[in-house]
Amino acid sequence: MSSPQAPEDGQGCGDRGDPPGDLRSVLVTTVLNLEPLDEDLFRGRHYWVPAKRLFGGQIVGQALVAAAKSVSEDVHVHSLHCYFVRAGDPKVPVLYQVERTRTGSSFSVRSVKAVQHGKPIFICQASFQQAQPSPMQHQFSMPTVPPPEELLDCETLIDQYLRDPNLQKRYPLVLNRIAAQEVPIEIKPVNPSPLSQLQRMEPKQMFWVRARGYIGPELESPGAQG
Fold this sequence. Notes:
It contains 5 helices and 8 strands.
């Protein structure tokens, strides 16, 4: 349940090579821009480090971008298997080595290894397929949920929590720390529960998720979409 957000008038224009000016858009645009070093070899840098280790979603996204650069634009990624084998070091860049495991007429497979300090920290295999009609369905049907335009994002919910004197007294450090974070991903819970009811929530949650701001033209190409 995600979708890229197109640039607004006056943002990300010009030669389209300059990233938008707001911080969250810059984070997304620059993180997913890999530096080519050689054929099937790329370097990724870090612009958002929420902890002492690298954010796993960043590594997955950069690895998928690296894999997509080695396939034609008429295929879509339909399967991704990932393994985190070591903690990522936020002090050094990550090298992404792409192996062209198989290139077929309908399916192509790419293996990607993310390396730091000469050792793999992450490995994945991505399978790409040409768009074809098929009676087979390998996923659950879309649940009936409100559209994202009718829901509040996490920042608005946290702001409401901070206005509650009881919650502010019980969770002052946690709520303020979350509110101060610059997160490049917009998340809208479908059924947010008050903090007082967290212990009684169902073991299932649904979210609308998308990147904040414009993520660049390259990720709009069919070969790089998930």
